[in-house]
Amino acid sequence: MAGAYDASLPGVPDWLNKGDNAWQLTSATLVGLQSMPGLVILYASIVKKKWAVNSAFMALYAFAAVLLCWVLLCYKMAFGDELVPFWGRGGPAFDQGYLKGQAKIPETIRKFGNGTTEKEATMPYFPMATLVYFQFTFAAITTILVAGSVLGRMNIKAWMAFVPLWLIFSYTVGAYSLWGGGFLYHWGVIDYSGGYVIHLSSGVAGFVAAYWVGPRPQADRERFPPNNVLLMLAGAGLLWMGWSGFNGGAPYAANLTSSIAVLNTNLSAATSLLVWTCLDVIFFGKPSVIGAIQGMVTGLAGVTPGAGLIQTWAAIIIGIFSGSIPWASMMILHKKSILLQQVDDTLAVFYTHAVAGVLGGLLTGLFAHPDLCVLLLPVPNTNGAFYGGNGGKQFLKQLVGAAFITVWNVVSTTLILLAIKMFIPLRMAEEELGIGDDAAHGEEAYALWGDGEKFDATRHETQMQEFERDQEAAHPSYVHGARGVTIVL
């Protein structure tokens, strides 16, 4: 019998590590589950009943559209050969010869001033197909997070145009600059698994999109209760558990760094959730499920920039800051700022992702441990400010990296939306906003009315008259009650 790595097995080349490949595919699946069905369920259940279908569909569409765009063009824009220092040269990634070769990120090679090689390009021990799919799941969840800022009023056709354009002109720039061998990567800015590339960019882009799309109707802004709290928890649970693949898969191997990252990720999330919940109890007198979910998300986003590069006690500290500073920015700063109140960020993506992402990136600039950095990072002698050496410069680099991602997303998102607005209205018509899912999709999540839905009497009149006649004939004590409910007197 042939062994697991026998030369007679053409599907197992000598560079393939089955353990790394299995872990990377598992991580990719976990991250994919965060979006589909995780965020699909979370978005559908956390919004008002009349927007459940629309919110879920925005996430579902983005997941599918990003995958097609990713293999047609965007993967190589983010991880291919250099076009400019912040952008790769786009191209298709679906040729079988390309996909079955060993994974490689060509521009991550580092050279000395005299041209000799200091560090070889990143070449994980699994096929290129695995890397393409793994990085797709990150691109997909980032785009879906942007949707959280504009739920409940964005024209679905405008969203369908926005997704591929934002992926091409915004996400790929951040991914290449920090991960694909761009100028921030070689300068030494730390973004372990997406604090800047994913959370800061989605939070800023979502905030900008919310500004240009405009606010929800005043009635929705004042009262926007979740339509299913238990289902909301199910979606949040998929998001939390999927983060083990999110941060555990970032080293491209099942190694020491991935193990530390998984532990730190879950610990920071738990700490942040508890801190947020305690603040809710102290200031509002009772814990909130929505608050607990927001605290969980900020803890996960906060630890992501340095999950595999910090000690576990530092993950607890990051969890404390992630559960308190975003809470204060949302509950205190937001209410005192006229500008922040004018922008209707439906799910507070700016606070839970952008604020938490920047916070985590800066804290990584303080807590990154030199012994852990040497296991993964390309730039030698990298560490946080608390460990001396070049730590002060590292903190400055983290600030510059955050500034670049912020400015690029403000400009690119603005230009994309203004371009779309020339052809498609960004916001639904007022009549559609009053009805919700039925107007946008011709479908409804529940066979019930209420929570702000506009009852269309003409649409249901014949149906209700027939129902009333049947009920009166069967039992004279039945009458037609409020909201289409038949009650017995």
Kindly describe this structure.
The chain has 489 residues and is mostly helical. It has a domain at 37-237 and 322-365 and 393-422: Ammonium transporter fold (Orthogonal Bundle). Helices cover 63% and strands 3% of the residues. It has 19 helices and six strands. The protein has helices at 18-46, 52-79, 96-99, 128-147, 156-178, 183-187, 195-213, 218-222, 229-248, 256-284, 289-303, 312-336, 338-342, 349-367, 370-373, 391-421, 430-435, 437-441, 457-474; strands at 82-84, 87-88, 110-111, 117-119, 478-480, 486-488. Helix 7 runs antiparallel to helix 14 (349-367), helix 9 packs antiparallel against helix 10 and helix 10 (256-284) runs parallel beside helix 12. It is globular. Residues 476-489 have low confidence and may be disordered. Residues 22-446 form the Ammonium transporter AmtB-like domain.
Major sheet strand order = 1-2
Q: CATH superfamily name of the domain at 37-237 and 322-365 and 393-422?
A: Ammonium transporter AmtB like domains
Percent of residues in helices: 55-70%
Helix and strand sequence: HHEEHEEHHHHHHHHHHHHHHHHEE
Give the rounded overall mean pLDDT.
Answer: 89
Give the end-to-end Cα distance, rounded to a whole number of Å: 78 Å
CATH topology of the domain at 37-237 and 322-365 and 393-422: Ammonium transporter fold
CATH architecture of the domain at 37-237 and 322-365 and 393-422: Orthogonal Bundle
Number of helices: 19
Poorly predicted ranges (pLDDT <50, ≥5 residues)? 476-489
User: What is the general shape?
Assistant: globular
Largest sheet: 2 strands, antiparallel
Regarding CATH, which class of the domain at 37-237 and 322-365 and 393-422? Mainly Alpha
Q: State the total count of DSSP E strands.
A: 6
Q: How much of the polypeptide forms β-strand, as a percent range?
A: under 5%
Structural class, by secondary structure, is mainly alpha
Rg (C-alpha, Å): 24 Å
